[in-house]
């Protein structure tokens, strides 16, 4: 990996798209964002460092792009799992679907370990 001045390559980040609808939290590709309509920027969105979302209180269908950082990839992934858990708990979402589960992320901690 090339060395780039001013960039700390030891940090980790998770950039993920989620869709919430009637008891379901789905992790999917960016296509879910294309039909979302106007998006807003939030900091500390359910624990995520930053988010772009069409979320509004009382809305049952919404999407978000979550940006979650950590001091390592493993820490960022663990924080991501906590964010997903917090969103599921807050909205009472009983179903979780991830089209690319944690097994595909080297060194990842699965969401199930946080449930």
Shape: globular
Strand order of the largest sheet: 3-4-5-1-2-6
What helical percentage do the residues reach?
Answer: 10-25%
Structural class: alpha+beta
Write a short abstract of this structure:
Helix content is 17%, strand content 36%. It has 115 residues and is α+β, with helices and mostly antiparallel strands.
Give an account of the 3D structure.
By secondary structure, this protein is an alpha+beta fold. The chain has one helix and six strands. The protein has one helix at 73-91, and strands at residues 12-21, 24-28, 40-45, 48-53, 61-70, 95-98. A six-stranded mixed beta sheet has the order 3-4-5-1-2-6, with helices on one face. A hairpin with a 2-residue loop joins strand 1 and strand 2 (24-28). Mean pLDDT is 85; it is low at 104-109.
Can you give keywords for this protein?
single chain, 115 residues, alpha+beta, six-stranded mixed β-sheet, 1 helix, 17% helix
């Amino acid at each position: 990996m090339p060395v780039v001045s001013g960039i700390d390559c030891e940090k980790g980040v998770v950039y993920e798209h989620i869709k919430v609808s009637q008891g379901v939290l789905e992790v999917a590709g960016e296509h879910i964002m294309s039909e979302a309509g106007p998006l807003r920027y939030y900091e500390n969105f359910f624990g995520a460092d930053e988010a772009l979302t069409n979320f509004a209180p009382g809305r049952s269908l919404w999407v978000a792009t979550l940006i979650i950082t950590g001091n390592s990839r493993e820490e960022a992934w663990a924080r991501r799992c906590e964010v997903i858990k917090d969103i599921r708990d807050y909205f009472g979402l009983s179903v979780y679907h991830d089209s690319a589960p944690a097994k595909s992320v080297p060194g990842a901690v699965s969401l199930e370990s946080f449930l």
